[in-house]
Amino acid sequence: MKKKEIQKIYKKKIKLIKKFNEFYYNKSKPAVTDEEYDNLKKEILLLEEKYNFLDLIESPSKIVGHKPSKNFKKDFHRVPMLSLANAFTEEDLINFEKKILNFLSKDKNYTIFYSAEPKIDGISASLTYKSGEFVKGLSRGDGKEGEDITANLLTLTDIPKKIHSKDFPEEIDIRGEVFIQNSDFEKLKEKFANPRNAASGSLRQKNPEDTKKIPLKFIAYTFGFEKGLKINSQFDYLTELNKWGFKTNPLNKLISGVSNLIENYNFVEKQRSNLDFDIDGIVYKVNDFILQKRLGNVANAPRWAVAHKFSSNKATSKITDIEIQLGRTGALTPVAKIKPVNIGGVLVSNATLHNEDEIIRKDIRIGDTVTVERAGDVIPHILSVDLKKRSKKSSKFIFPKTCPSCGSKTIKEFNKLTKKNDAVRRCSSEGYKCDKISIEKLKHFVSKEAFNIDGFGKKIVENFWKLKLIKYPQDIFNLDFSKIENLDGWGKLSVQNLKYSIEQKKTISLEKFIYSLGIRHIGLENAKLLSKHFISFSEFKNLSKQTNYEDLLNIDGIGETQVSSIKSFLSNEANIKVLNELEKVLLIKDAIQNSDDGLLNNKTFLVTGKLNGISRAEVKSLIEENSGKTISSVSKKLNFLIIGEKPTRKKVEYAKQLKIKIIDQAEFLKMLNKTS
Ligand code: IVH
Question: Which residues pair with 173 in a beta bridge?
Fold first, then answer.
């Protein structure tokens, strides 16, 4: 079939599904049966998969819902809104800078300038300007997709509606924080728990007139998509923002050196109580945009920025009980129930005790008087026990040797790397044998970074589990909605919404799918590596038929710990059953292969020895950007061994034996048409 014909068929199908959506959601009167609707959707998705030139934005693969979630319609960010890694101590900052220098392969005397910006605790928003005009405003949402809150943002006087400056980019997403000043919050105290909630609440009013009533402010600090931005550094960008009419934080500074960062941090922290807005730390961003670009991102945070959180708040309280919580990986986490105490405006009644070793080390007991610390949004923890106040009758806390949920033995695994027993005790059951672990697995499965099923939160997982509506992940896609409709708190419309959200998520990338399975040690980053390696779900599943998992060690970033975890996951029959059942109901999209038109397509590389002015991590990104692959050992699969200073002799010799091409840094860069 010709391209044009395919496009015509595709467009027709999209038009039809739009019509069905309209009937279903806006007129509440379905035009076709669910099955017919699903089939049409699958046909569209399959067409898109087969022909990558088909990508209408109205496609069901792009829109999250025809229906607006609650009050607002959703829209994708053209450049994702990332989050930030946290730093708490000077040591964290030293490590942050060290990692940057390593990545950029600079020596320790190289000076990095940072834009140090107080971190306002509000709600971030992304404002799209086209030809100087404010055309759309989105909330952060999950970072990829936000709510269209344009109408409400239009009511903020801090947001310029039209920018006339000649040097304003043709198109740009200006990003910053919407917040409420403490003095204005005073008047709203009864309605909201804190200024952040007040800002979030008023920004999400159905009626923009209601938003207008609350004096929301906007401070700009970064950008997303841009076309025509002629600026080379963050600090210059902040200056430009001012010229264009945006407010920026008056306490922003350009600083180099960790000790100066700390000095500024202490200075700002002292001013904190005098400020009219809440700040919870300072954000440091590498100033130079070229360096930022080289550094890139990990998972969902940039390598070039960090949030240095302000020191915590502490309080004393009494432990009334110690509960054992069970996580999805079987870890038994002790949690101290404490007499509720107000720490920095938040009522705290739980504190994590981390693991068995921590309880033993600090000899924490029920009845103890303790100091509790709460730092930023981290779970409060116990700092110390006041032994003077300990009752003579108190006795040591005995950690359970059997699982509180299923009764299986609890074990401490031996860690091959540290050659020590783990600090964490785990339930030894596997698959879906332990109820509590299964529930936690399901919660992970539907969570934001995994299947991200709208309206299917932790509470619903627990509720549906109790009612025996779900036990395995596949049950989520085979729910009996007629039963749910009769449950307390559910009605026709909410069931319809749930059905829709689940339906929307039946198409998933291989990467997210692997992550959703909740395999121990396989987080987002590793799931991505695995999906790139396997490309398709069937290849991933086929692994269970093999006995040799060693191949996986060739994936740069995957080590023995991950391999043995994948192996034990795939050797469990219950897990395989889940995979088979999920395969029946889902459309798991193949991983997008790095464009295969790069200069290094089909070529594999390995680096040995120290390179000059470029780190291993950067070489790896360069190779991948150009469609090549890095592997972690010399084998027949290797095409090029890049050698630097002091290479591992064994690797070089083995490569010679296998007649693998050995090149130096200059030759490698030449392959990329680069000279340095
Ligand atoms: S930059 C990739 N700059 O912090 C950079 N964020 O944890 C990400 N925030 O969602 C954002 N002040 O709501 C940046 N000067 C600042 C900020 C700032 C506050 C918030 C923002 C973001 C969160 C990241």
Answer: 128
Q: What's the domain range around 494?
A: 435-505
- Distance (Å) of CA 664 to CA 433, 494, 640, 644: 53, 62, 10, 6
Task: For residue 144, report the distance from its CA to the centre of ligand 1, in Å.
Answer: 15
Same structural domain for residues 176 and 257? yes
| CA pair distance 234, 239, nearest whole angstrom | 9
Report how far Cα 617 is from the mean position of its chain's Cα atoms.
Answer: 21
Local confidence band at 66 (pLDDT 50, 70, 90 cut-offs): very low
State the Cα torsion 205-207-212-216 to the nearest 10°.
20
Angle 623-94-611 (CA atoms, 0-180°, nearest 5)? 30
User: What's the structural domain count of the chain?
Assistant: 6
CA-CA-CA-CA torsion for 253, 258, 259, 262, nearest 10 degrees?
Answer: 60
Look up the pTM and report it.
0.58
Together in a domain, 276 and 322: no
Q: 239-242: long-range contacts (C-beta < 8 A, 24 or more apart)?
A: 240/167, 241/174
Task: Answer whether residue 635 shows pLDDT above 70.
Answer: yes
Question: Quick one: 360 and 467 in the same domain?
Answer: no
Q: Give all strands (DSSP E) within 430-481, no chain letters.
A: none
Average pLDDT for residues 258-279, to the nearest whole number?
Answer: 91
CB of 84 sitting under 6 A from ligand 1? yes
For 379-386, which contacts have Cβ atoms below 8 Å and span 24 or more sequence positions? 379/350, 379/351, 379/352, 380/343, 380/348, 380/350, 380/351, 380/352, 381/351, 381/352, 381/353, 381/354, 382/319, 382/336, 382/351, 382/353, 383/314, 386/316
Q: In terms of domains, do 400 and 456 share one? A: no
Q: Are 322 and 353 in contact (CB under 8 A)?
A: yes
Q: Ligand 1 centroid vs 195 CA: distance in angstroms? A: 17
278 Cβ below 6 A of ligand 1: no
